[in-house]
Write a structure and sequence with these properties.
6 strands; about 220 residues; about 45% helix
Length: about 220
């Protein structure tokens, strides 16, 4: 086992529907009110500015909804979603669920001295809230680092994985993901890679060649 294991979330640790259905449905009606209520927050103000620039118009909520409909990994959208989800988890409105094999594997790796990190398109704030409020309790003590498209970069570009490796100060890293293109990028950066083929998930029947493939974590 590598010194570091870096893990994707959606489709790897947790069902895609939990994000695309449960979390998206929770965030969608709250985006407009959140922007109105937190407009003075520098993080929100910066996200709104980015949204207008990227969308090419000033209808921020419409742009956000359009990106959600297309499941586009747009950074300011992820930022706002993360803030809303963070509050939702803290209030008890949301509880994260994992595939049955995930939490035992995370705990075993941690107990064996493997350092664990997350790389997801969801914001770091959203990730921390996700792992803090789960059906298995607070799992954040198991994790050493969180990476997203803001502090690392796009998940399908090798440079993002090189940036993460520099932060982790290691070249002994294994990346687990259900998306072959992400595994290709990590491998190009010199990482070990493992494809996670979950039955019923969008990439469950994908071609993971040349990456080793598992159907559950162990």
């Amino acid at each position: 086992m590598s010194k570091w294991v870096v893990l994707d979330i959606e489709g790897t640790l947790s069902a895609t529907d939990q994000v695309l259905v449960v979390l998206y449905d929770y965030a969608r009606p709250r985006l407009g009110p959140w922007i109105e209520e937190h407009g003075d927050d520098p993080v929100v103000a910066d996200a709104v500015k980015q949204i207008k620039e990227l969308a090419g118009h000033d209808d921020v909520v419409k742009a956000l909804h359009d990106w959600m409909d297309a499941d586009q990994k747009v950074t300011p959208l992820k930022t706002l979603q993360g803030l809303i989800w963070q509050q939702g988890y803290a209030q008890g409105d949301l509880v994260a669920e994992f595939f049955p094999d995930v939490v035992p594997a995370l705990r075993k790796w941690h107990d064996d001295g493997v350092k664990l990190a997350i790389f997801s398109s969801g914001s770091v704030a959203g990730q921390i809230a996700f792992f803090k409020h789960t059906t298995d309790g607070d799992l954040t003590p198991l994790l050493e680092h969180h990476f997203d498209t803001v502090n690392a970069g796009p998940k399908r570009e090798a440079e993002s994985y090189r940036k993460i490796a520099a932060v982790l100060q290691s070249d002994d890293i294994t990346f687990y993901s259900d998306v072959p293109a992400e595994l290709h990028a990590a491998q190009e950066a010199g990482w070990k890679t493992v494809g996670v083929a979950r039955a019923g998930e969008p990439y469950g029947n994908a071609d993971f060649t040349p990456h080793p493939t598992v159907w559950e974590l162990s």
